[in-house]
Amino acid sequence: MSWGLVGSLLYLYGYLIFAYVILSWFVGGNRSGLLADAYRVLASICEPYIGLFRRIIPPIRAGSAGLDLSPLVALIVVQMVAGLLQRAG
Question: How far does CA 14 lie from the centroid of its chain?
Fold first, then answer.
């Protein structure tokens, strides 16, 4: 398997992370339906990787609300590694 192919797969994984984050805004408390099913599938794919960053990076608190930056950092790391592998392969 060439490094370029691995880089392309990592870019695809980055898109899955992005879709996971966007769906998390819309699913909210609604845990039934097509969007919730898609969210659960993406969570099972993306959450193990994002969880690595979630253990390191605490959410930013603003009063009672919190902003979780771990998906953003995870996405940046995936994109950087994918770019490096694309150039190598």
Answer: 6
